[in-house]
Amino acid sequence: MSIQTVMVVGAGQMGSGIVQVAAAAGRKVLWHDLTMPFIDKGMLVIRKHLARSVEKGKLTVEEQTSIIGRILPTEDVTDAAKVDLVIEAISENMAWKTNLFQKLDRICPPGVILATNTSSLPITEIAAATSRPSQVIGMHFMNPVPVMPLIEVIRGLETSQDVFDAIFQLSKEFGKTPVEVQDFPGFVSNRILMPMINEAVFTVYEGVASVEAVDTVMKLGMNHPMGPLELADFIGLDTCLSIMEILYEGFKDPKYRPCPLLRKYVKAGRLGRKSGQGFYVYA
Ligand code: CAA
């Protein structure tokens, strides 16, 4: 199963990172979002990152030009009929995702693989909304996508071996290390990461230590590149809360209950870097 042409749906931070990685790996990438200004904004981010790589001598100007040339923005979702693989990277909303997958299922010829970059929604449920559950798979990239070497490749209940093998191989050709994961709440990454972040929030909530102290312990004591609270701000506190709710709901185990302080911050609109304030304040 050769995957040469890819459509990425969604022009947020994850979508633009995936587009950059796929185009750098020589794939023609159709980039779809509902309106062109979203894609234009994402394109600026990609151009900035590529320009930085050229300045650092990691990329030639010719390579930069050909990567950009392989990215084709489109407002027309029916262009999905022209690709071998669609990677969905829209907001984490099950109704929006199932709606999109049903649309893609109608548009794409048989054989086209539909992948989701969801960080925590069940692949099996998204797949069940289509008439091709064997061709639906999870492809969970980490943020920032161009930098982080991991892709969790998540098998839905019905995902075929051929589709799994094709996505595993493609992930390697994207320059990443794929890891096979089964479809259970939080997969592996967020099942382990989010309770750690939640526990860091509890540590502050209970007055054990300050935000800075918690992050310093984990950075200097455990060699984490970012402390858990800095990382929570980077990911988005609303995303962290929503993943904790999915773990809590999925396992019905009180160890996954979200910290009240995390809930309070989200209710207040303190969502982390993207809103200008979370556990830290951003300029
Ligand atoms: N996009 C592209 N490149 C980026 C980038 C971005 N957003 N941010 C940083 N980089 C690049 C820089 O250009 C730099 O490249 P060079 O090595 O070529 O110079 C490199 O990354 C290192 O960047 P910096 O020197 O500016 O900063 P740093 O050394 O502090 O690293 C970091 C920044 C890579 C983000 C690092 O702090 C880190 O690894 N943090 C942890 C990130 C993490 O845990 N991500 C997973 C989040 S969880 C997730 O994604 C799953 C989920 O479902 C929630």
UniProtKB/TrEMBL annotation:
PROSITE patterns, sorted: 3HCDH
Site (Important for catalytic activity): H140
NCBIfam families: PRK05808.1 (NF004474)
Keywords from the UniProt entry: NAD, Oxidoreductase
GO molecular function: NAD+ binding; oxidoreductase activity, acting on the CH-OH group of donors, NAD or NADP as acceptor
One GO BP: butyrate metabolic process
SUPFAM superfamilies: 6-phosphogluconate dehydrogenase C-terminal domain-like (SSF48179), NAD(P)-binding Rossmann-fold domains (SSF51735)
The keyword Oxidoreductase belongs to this UniProt entry's keyword annotation: yes
Record-listed NAD(+) binding positions: G10, A11, G12, Q13, M14, G15, D33, E92, K97, S119, N143, K274
All residue ranges annotated as the 3-hydroxyacyl-CoA dehydrogenase C-terminal domain in the record: 186-282
3-hydroxyacyl-CoA dehydrogenase NAD binding domain span: 5-183
The organism's place on the tree of life at top rank: Bacteria
PANTHER family to which the protein is assigned, alphabetical: 3-HYDROXYACYL-COA DEHYDROGENASE FAMILY PROTEIN, 3-HYDROXYBUTYRYL-COA DEHYDROGENASE
Family: Belongs to the 3-hydroxyacyl-CoA dehydrogenase family.
Stated name of the protein: 3-hydroxybutyryl-CoA dehydrogenase
Pathway field: Lipid metabolism; butanoate metabolism
UniProt cross-references to InterPro entries, sorted A to Z: 3-OHacyl-CoA_DH, 3-OHacyl-CoA_DH_CS, 3-OHacyl-CoA_DH_NAD-bd, 3HC_DH_C, 6-PGluconate_DH-like_C_sf, 6PGD_dom2, NAD(P)-bd_dom_sf
